[in-house]
UniProtKB/TrEMBL annotation:
Gene3D superfamilies: Winged helix-like DNA-binding domain superfamily/Winged helix DNA-binding domain. Pfam families: HxlR. SUPFAM superfamilies: Winged helix' DNA-binding domain. Transmembrane segments: none annotated. Keywords: DNA-binding, Transcription, Transcription regulation. Residues 1-90 form the HTH hxlR-type domain. It comes from Streptomyces corchorusii. It comes from the Bacteria. GO terms for molecular function: DNA binding. PROSITE patterns: HTH_HXLR (PS51118). The keyword DNA damage does not apply. This is HxlR family transcriptional regulator. InterPro entries: HTH_HxlR (IPR002577), WH-like_DNA-bd_sf (IPR036388), WH_DNA-bd_sf (IPR036390).
Length: 107
C-alpha cells in the first residue's frame, strides 16, 4: 500500500461499505483510472474487499478488512497528532527559517 490515494480511500471507506461512484465523488482530484488501480491494489494487499451484488446493473461495494480498520486507526492517531502539534511545527519552521536565511547560506 502506497500513495496518497490509498490513504484517502481508507479514510473514505472507514464507515462501512461504499460504492465506486461514492468514492469517486468523495475523493477530489482522483481519476477514474487511478481509483480503479488503487482499489485493485488495496484488494490485492488484503485491505479492501470487493463485493459484486447480482443486480442490473451490477452493484459493486468496497469495504475495509479488519487489518485495514487497524491501519485506519493508526492513521487517525497520526492525523490527531499532526493537528495537535501543527502550531508547534509552524513555529519551529519559522524559527529555523529566521536562523537560516538564504543570505546566510551563501557565506
Amino acid at each position: 500500500m502506497a500513495g496518497k490515494w490509498s490513504v484517502q480511500i481508507l479514510v473514505a471507506a472507514a464507515h462501512g461499505p461504499i460504492r465506486f461512484t461514492e468514492l469517486e465523488r468523495g475523493i477530489e482530484g482522483i481519476s477514474r483510472r487511478m481509483l480503479t488501480l488503487t482499489l485493485r491494489n488495496l484488494e490485492r494487499d488484503g485491505l479492501v474487499t470487493r463485493t459484486v451484488h447480482p443486480t442490473v446493473p451490477p452493484k459493486v461495494e468496497y469495504e475495509l478488512t479488519p487489518v485495514a480498520h487497524e491501519l485506519h486507526d493508526t492513521l487517525q492517531r497520526l492525523t490527531d497528532w499532526a493537528e495537535r502539534n501543527r502550531v508547534y511545527v509552524a513555529e519551529a519552521r519559522a524559527a529555523y527559517d529566521a536562523e537560516h536565511r538564504p543570505e546566510s547560506l551563501d557565506a
